[in-house]
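Sanity check

After download, print the first record. It should look like this:
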Amino acid sequence: MITIGQSYRVTFQLSTDLTTASSVQIGYIDPTRATTIVSAIVDDTVNGVIHYDVNKTTNAIAGLWKWWAEVTFTDGSKYIGEAKELWVHSIGDIAR
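Expected structure tokens:
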């Protein structure tokens, strides 16, 4: 369970080769419906494994977060991954 103020990592296994990627990003919609796009860290170029580390300052809102990968390749084509949903709980939720 992830709670407000806790750091965590969002990882995607895209199963697509990122060798010719010009931009690798992860997007998210927070519980207030604000959309943000951040640069992803590429862990494995050939297998398309990427991640983003969410710090405790970013993780300040309880509720449903939606995450997805966005890759742009040098030929202009794009890959938009399927969204993952993640619940962030307030500290009081743990005691319930």
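If your output differs, re-run the checksum step. Summary of this record's structure: Residues 91-95 form the longest helix (5 residues).
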